[in-house]
Amino acid sequence: MPPFSGSATARLLPAVGTWTVHEPMIATFSVGNLGKRVAGTIPVTSAEVDVAEDGTVRGASAELDIAAIDTGHTRRDRDLRKPNLLDLANHPRMTFSSTRLAEHDSGWTVAGLLTVKGTTREISLDATAELQADGTVRLRLTGQLDRTDYGIKAPRFMIGKTVDIDIDITLRRQ
């Protein structure tokens, strides 16, 4: 996991150490499809946040099993596997590695590099963190990506250009 760029990072988690996904988690997404919104899920196979001795976040990373994408529609899921869309035979994973963290009034902005279909682009996600009674932290990340940046080709009237992302995970300190 690469360190953050810049000289200052914000506190996101309450304690020093490495925080990892507590249990299997699912990311959700939605995108326009033939005039309607289509939602789906992707399993989060790993996520890690590294907190330094001074309480600042040194870096964060995640991996999603995009080959297990589920929109609730078998034919659509099969179509998404095709080379012009997600090319899941060659690119079954989606990865994220943080580069910057900035605090703002309602949480944080986490910027990083997202790799989909073998293409890496910068993305910014809004993040909130909530300490749970059992010592875990609920971390929620939301944002959008432009599917055309990743070579996902389809006419706009069929599949919208932007994909909304919502990742709601629970982290436990190791």
Number of domains: 1
**Overall pLDDT score:** 88
CATH superfamily: Lipid/polyisoprenoid-binding, YceI-like
Strand content: over 45%
Count every beta strand, where a strand is a DSSP E run of 2 or more residues: 9
Radius of gyration of CA atoms, rounded to a whole number = 17 Å
* Structural class category: mainly beta
How are helices and strands ordered from N to C? EEEEHEEEEE
How would you describe this protein?
- With 174 residues, the chain is mainly beta.
- The protein has one domain (17-173): Lipocalin (Beta Barrel), CATH 2.40.128.110.
- It contains 1 helix and 9 strands; from the N terminus they run ββββαβββββ.
- It has one helix at residues 74-80, and strands at 17-21, 25-33, 36-51, 57-65, 93-104, 107-116, 119-131, 137-146, 159-173.
- Strands 1, 2, 3, 4, 5, 6, 7, 8 and 9 form a 9-stranded antiparallel β-sheet that branches.
- β6 and β7 (119-131) form a beta hairpin.
- It is elongated and about 50 Å long.
